[in-house]
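Lecture notes, continued. The same structure-token format from the folding unit now serves as the input rather than the output. Read the line below as a description of shape only.
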């Protein structure tokens, strides 16, 4: 028989578990009993609040009845119900404030108290007027229905409170029933649990006795199994591809596999019983200092250790090999350490691949920097000559002296210059999107207003090609949470696509509706050239314009659809295309989650709306621009708006002008012959706090950020449209202007 003392520790644990179970069940039973009492107390409180509300409305009615009797008769005895009702109301209101749930009904109770006080004031006022004999005023008060309206509001608030209290009451009934049910279950469960614990304790004692009997027979079997496992482990270590060294507790080698022999140049016969540090000699690749043997570190710490990077193994012949390794203790089942197993491998190929990847990464990063610089310079060089052209066209558009016969030509030239600017912006935008550097300014946006605005932009093209365009904007929820400018850019790209590929006299339809998933769908269909299945599969790929000459000859860079899809995905939307084939027209569907309309009782300007804009006030402006044509045309345009404009063509002349005169606005180019616009703004900020706008052909995100950080209030990318320039001037000359206009 197993001695009782050997199982005493288990008996103590069993007793402790049962004691904890009994104490826990007692506490749980008490808590649920307390919960039942608390739930019943809540029922009583909720019932009392409902009765108080009934009494309160009754008291108001009594007060109103007394007032009416007095108004009709003028007899003071009829005021008895009024006085009694007022007295009751005071008590009922105090009682209601004390009994209601402040977290749920405090606002309604406060409203009710205000309404009752207002009602009592109205009753007293009519009684006072009746006492003074002014019957005409009494009739006027009665006919105004003021008392009726107040009474209706009181009834409404009381009804709301009653509904809430009845809901609370119902919830309290549910909780009380639930608590009673759970308490019953707990009573039964704890009793059953205690019985189960007793059965478990009995079984555990029996199993412990049986386990002790089996341990002696298992010990012998384990010794035999350990011998077999040791032999199997030796065979396994000899077969694996990594290098393996096994040592005893003194760090002397007892085993090496064939891979280790090949890498170190030592055979197992030569290395057996030698200290591991003699065979496994390692140094730092850069300092050439010896590295502590991992075998010694494992024996000292008893943990798995690994080599630091850049470790070299000195082979028997003196040659060097980069390696990586780890070491671990070998332990008996009882935890005693038998030795160390060291696993390592030749890292020559890995190091070569790592270096090649590092060089490739540096080359790719350098190429990316060159590309970014090229795009920035390309943007500047393309935009700068367009600036005076677009400015002059804007000037002609404002000049009444332009002959009517040239107005269409002016619009045509301005349209094509703006299209050129759009192509440049698309190229740069696609670069920003691919790098995740584009930012969105999200707001509640009216899609219908954006669509109408885009259609207005294409009015000339539609008229020139004699296109028939229909709008069916039927979406009941036309608002989305998006960047208005970027969403308008998407719609512009889709409509541009339809007008470009639809022949003279064709049809374009733009429709909107809401689907069952809460999205707004904008469907743009045309009767144009259509698309093949191959074109459909690549329509959203950048720089792809289809496989037919008609697509390529229509111009463009093939960026609009790709950029549109990227922008929509950033705003949580999608875009898809469909066509029945060549000559069958095309359909593009834009889907974006819709949101509720913005509040109408606040002064909120919905993004995408055409709110009225006030004209800029007349300013004294310094224009710093080294491109003479751009400077002259901008000066003429600003002077046409009544501004006093001065020119400077370099940093030196700009600094001299700023030092001698004070200006209300600075318009400054970034690329100047003797410096940059950043030099100008630093000097300007030392003297004045007047607003300043950077005007540049450099339009990358980094260019905008650098300008704002240097002290500019806004950044405009050349070429600048007249309306964008006016909007920027208007914004920066107001106190709450946005910091960036792009």
């Amino acid at each position: 028989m197993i001695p009782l003392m050997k199982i005493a520790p288990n008996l103590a644990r069993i007793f402790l578990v049962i004691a904890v179970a009994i104490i826990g069940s007692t506490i749980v039973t008490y808590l649920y009993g307390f919960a039942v009492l608390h739930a019943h107390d809540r029922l009583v409180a909720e019932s009392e609040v409902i009765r108080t509300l009934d009494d309160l409305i009754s008291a108001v009615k009594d007060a109103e009845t007394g007032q009416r009797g007095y108004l009709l008769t003028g007899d003071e005895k009829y005021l008895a119900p009024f006085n009694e009702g007022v007295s009751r109301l005071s008590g009922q209101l105090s009682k209601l404030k004390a009994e209601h749930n402040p977290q749920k009904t405090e606002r309604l109770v406060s409203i009710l108290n205000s309404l009752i006080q207002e009602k009592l004031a109205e009753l007293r006022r009519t009684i006072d007027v009746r006492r003074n004999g002014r019957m005409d005023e009494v009739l006027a008060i009665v006919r105004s229905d003021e008392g009726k309206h107040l009474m209706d509001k009181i009834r409404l608030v009381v009804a709301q409170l009653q509904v809430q209290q009845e809901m609370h009451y119902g919830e309290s009934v549910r909780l009380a029933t639930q608590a009673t049910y759970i308490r019953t279950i707990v009573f039964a469960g704890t009793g059953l649990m205690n019985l189960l614990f007793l059965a478990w304790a009995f079984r555990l004692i029996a199993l412990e006795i049986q386990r002790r009997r089996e341990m002696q027979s298992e010990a012998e079997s384990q010794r035999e199994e350990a011998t077999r496992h040791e032999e199997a482990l030796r065979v396994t270590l000899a077969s694996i591809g990594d290098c393996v060294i096994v040592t005893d507790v003194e760090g002397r080698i007892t085993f090496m596999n064939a891979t280790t022999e090949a890498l170190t140049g030592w055979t197992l016969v030569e290395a057996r019983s030698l200290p591991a540090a003699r065979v496994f000699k390692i140094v730092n690749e850069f300092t050439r200092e010896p590295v502590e043997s991992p075998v010694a570190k494992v024996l000292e710490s008893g943990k798995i250790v690994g080599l630091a990077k850049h470790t070299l193994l000195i082979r028997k012949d003196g040659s060097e090999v980069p390696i990586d390794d780890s070491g671990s203790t070998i332990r008996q089942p009882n935890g005693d350490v038998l030795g160390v197993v060291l696993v390592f491998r030749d890292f020559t190929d890995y190091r070569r691949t790592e270096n090649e990847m590092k060089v490739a990464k540096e080359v790719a990063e350098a190429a990316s920097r060159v590309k970014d610089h090229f795009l920035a310079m390309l943007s500047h060089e393309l935009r700068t000559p367009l600036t005076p052209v677009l400015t002059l066209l804007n000037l002609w558009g404002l000049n009444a002296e332009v002959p009517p016969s040239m107005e269409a030509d002016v619009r045509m030239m301005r349209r094509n210059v703006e299209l050129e600017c759009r192509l440049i912006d698309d190229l740069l935008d696609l670069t920003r999107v691919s790098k995740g550097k584009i930012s969105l300014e999200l707001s509640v946006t009216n899609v219908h207003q954006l669509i109408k605005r885009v259609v207005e932009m294409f009015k000339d093209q539609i008229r020139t090609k004699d296109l028939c365009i229909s709008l069916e904007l039927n979406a009941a929820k036309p608002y989305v949470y998006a960047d208005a400018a970027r969403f308008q850019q998407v719609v512009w790209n889709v409509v541009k696509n339809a007008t470009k590929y639809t022949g003279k006299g064709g049809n374009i339809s733009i429709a909107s509706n809401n689907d069952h998933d809460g999205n707004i769908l904008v469907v743009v269909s045309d009767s144009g050239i259509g698309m093949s299945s191959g074109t459909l599969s690549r329509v959203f790929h950048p720089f792809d314009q289809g496989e037919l000459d008609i697509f390529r000859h229509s111009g463009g860079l093939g960026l609009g659809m790709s950029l549109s899809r990227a922008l929509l995905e950033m705003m949580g939307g999608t875009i898809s295309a469909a066509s029945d084939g060549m000559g069958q027209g095309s359909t593009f569907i834009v889907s974006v989650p819709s949101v509720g309309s913005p509040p109408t009782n606040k002064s909120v300007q919905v993004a995408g709306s055409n709110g009225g804009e006030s004209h800029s006030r007349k300013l004294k402006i310094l224009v710093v621009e080294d491109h003479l044509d751009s400077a002259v045309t901008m000066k003429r345009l600003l002077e046409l708006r009544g501004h006093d404009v001065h020119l400077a063509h370099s940093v030196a002349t700009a600094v001299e002008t700023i030092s001698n005169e004070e200006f209300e606005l600075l318009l400054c180019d970034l690329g100047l012959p003797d410096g940059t616009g950043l030099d100008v703004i630093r000097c300007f900020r030392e003297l004045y706090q007047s607003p300043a706008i950077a005007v540049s052909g450099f339009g990358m995100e980094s260019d905008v950020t650098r300008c704002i950080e240097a002290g500019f209030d806004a950044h405009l990318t050349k070429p600048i449209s007249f309306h964008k320039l006016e909007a920027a001037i208007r914004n920066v000359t107001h106190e709450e202007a946005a910091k960036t206009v792009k």
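Point for the exam: The longest strand covers residues 320-331.
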